[in-house]
Design goal:
It is a single chain. The chain is an alpha/beta fold. The protein folds into three domains: 8-73 and 169-334, Phosphoenolpyruvate-binding domains (TIM Barrel); 81-160, PK beta-barrel domain-like (M1 Pyruvate Kinase, Domain 3), CATH 2.40.33; 353-469, 3-Layer(aba) Sandwich (Pyruvate Kinase, Chain: A, domain 1), CATH 3.40.1380.20. It contains 17 helices and 21 strands. It has helices spanning 20-29, 43-60, 112-117, 173-185, 198-208, 221-225, 227-233, 241-247, 253-267, 289-301, 310-313, 318-333, 338-343, 353-367, 381-388, 402-407, 425-438; strands at residues 8-13, 33-37, 65-69, 84-87, 92-96, 106-108, 123-126, 131-139, 142-149, 151-154, 159-160, 189-192, 213-218, 236-240, 271-274, 305-308, 372-376, 395-399, 414-418, 447-453, 462-469. The longest helix has 18 residues, at 43-60.
């Protein structure tokens, strides 16, 4: 049976959720795409998780998407005498390249690229913003700072540099090794961390070479400043609100989230809303009302997917977290307010036959009260166009390419099925009706709207719209 919900769920695998039985339960609870977080775990860990997912896919008979999330550069201070030091507000504090253990007066910051990019008056945030340092005098290998917000600093805490574009690649040597490993395994999506500019996406695309979709994690204010260019180059995006909330004022993050979701919807690129969605469920069997409302807001905005991180990777209640998230999504999508919100925003079709056909399919399906839209696709572009329209009926995607079906598990409203391509109009209609009926998307006597491209099997050539009755 197909999913009841259009909005997808991404679940992160980790120590709490990597055994085959739990993976099966997570899928049955509503998870569509599984995230392998390469900030943690060994290659052997991820190979075992990947194998378990593919085995579950074979047993269930439904495509499962796998997203590898690269760690990206981690900017950190060095170590301290005794493991920690206390910085007093208003005190002077020096950062330099000296590897000697730090004190309450100085510490090592082993990143010359940060010193090269600093400006007078720039702020440095340490430990997710718990401490704030303001740069005064600085040079190629040091920065004399004032402690604006003091506190305890300990070994290897992270450093953020808001408002500064750092001259570093988002792909470290570790990331390049991980990427080669993940592509060899056969992941479907690659999430790129620390994206600052469009060139970062271009660099990743050169390495991936079409073997997976490239997803831009939007976690840096500099990326938001060039958002349209980045969305244009990537295949999908993620609103990484945790890191955005460190470098941006918290009150600006909700508006930024809505802007990203709307822009991705307009571009027809899948977008995930992530970070701390049901954070309480790491240790509690139920979320807070605020968390439930947070998930609901992303669904009302029309996000393609919402993501669970620690909740499923290391929490006590991984299956319960997916179950509750699915219930929230289902509740929103059945709310009478939901469809008017979806219908209020439709991207202007491009001046192409494919866009014209796809926009018409949504309108026809609504007018004749069809039960489903059926898309035939090779590359996935036809189905993504249909998803962009946010129709009020399910989208059945028929494709002969398993890798296309797996990638489309991330797209809003899409139910992907792998089947051989058709060779005639008669076969096109017959197969569409049979699969819609077999999948529970349509019943005998109901209608489906079919889009395809002629000649059949030609990528991106959507030029046919057909209305058919299900026998």
């Amino acid at each position: 049976m197909p999913r009841l919900c259009s909005t997808k769920i991404v679940a992160t695998l980790g120590p709490a959720s990597s055994d085959p039985a739990t993976i099966r339960k997570l899928f049955e609870a509503g998870a569509d795409v599984f995230r392998l977080n390469f900030s943690h775990g060994s290659h052997d860990d991820h190979r075992a998780r990947h194998a378990a997912l593919r085995e579950a896919e074979r047993e269930i008979g439904h495509p499962i998407g796998i997203l590898m999330d690269l760690q990206g550069p981690k900017l950190r201070v060095g170590t301290f005498e005794g493991g920690r030091a206390t910085l007093a507000t208003g005190a002077a504090f020096r950062l330099d390249l000296d590897a000697a253990p730090g004190t309450e007066r100085r510490a090592c910051l082993p990143h010359p690229e940060i010193f090269a990019a600093l400006k007078d008056g720039a702020d440095l945030l340490v430990d997710d913003g718990k401490l704030r340092l303001r740069v005064g005098r600085h040079g190629a290998d040091f920065a004399e700072c004032e402690v604006v917000t003091g506190g305890t600093i300990s070994d290897r805490k992270g450093v953020n540099v808001p408002g500064v574009v750092l001259p570093i690649s988002p792909l470290t040597e570790k990331d390049r090794r991980d990427l080669a490993f993940g592509l060899e395994l056969g992941v479907d999506w690659v999430a790129l961390s620390f994206v600052q500019r469009p060139e970062d996406i271009a660099e990743a695309r050169r390495l991936v070479q079409g073997r997976a979709g490239v997803l831009a994690k939007l976690e840096k204010p500099s990326a938001i400043e060039r958002l349209e260019e980045i969305v244009d180059l990537c295949d999908a995006a993620m609103v990484a609100r945790g890191d955005l909330g460190v470098e941006m004022p918290p009150e600006t993050v909700p508006g930024t989230q809505k802007r990203i979701v709307r822009l991705c919807r307009r571009a027809g690129k899948p977008v995930i809303v992530a970070t701390q969605m049901l954070e309480t469920m790491v240790s509690s069997p139920t979320p807070t009302r605020a968390e439930a409302s947070d998930v609901a807001t992303a669904v009302y905005d029309g996000a393609d997917a919402v993501m669970l991180s620690a909740e499923t990777a290391s929490g006590k209640y991984p299956v319960e977290a997916v179950t509750i998230m699915e219930k929230i999504i289902e509740s929103v999508e059945h709310d009478p307010l939901y469809r008017p919100i979806m219908d209020a925003v439709h991207a202007e079709p491009e001046h192409t036959a494919a866009d014209a056909i796809t926009a018409a399919a949504r309108q026809v399906a609504h007018t004749v009260r069809a039960s489903a839209i059926v898309t035939y696709t090779t590359s996935g572009s036809t189905t993504l166009r249909a998803s962009r329209e946010r129709p009020d009926v399910p989208i059945l995607c028929l494709t002969e390419k398993l890798e296309t079906a797996r990638r489309l598990t991330l797209a809003w409203g899409v139910h992907p099925v792998v089947t051989e391509d058709v060779r005639s109009f008669e076969e096109m209609v017959d197969k569409a009706c049979r699969f819609a009926k077999a999948g529970g998307l349509a019943q005998a006597g109901e209608r489906v709207v079919i889009t395809a491209g002629v000649p059949f099997g030609t990528p991106g050539a959507t030029n046919v719209l057909r209305l058919a009755w299900v026998d």
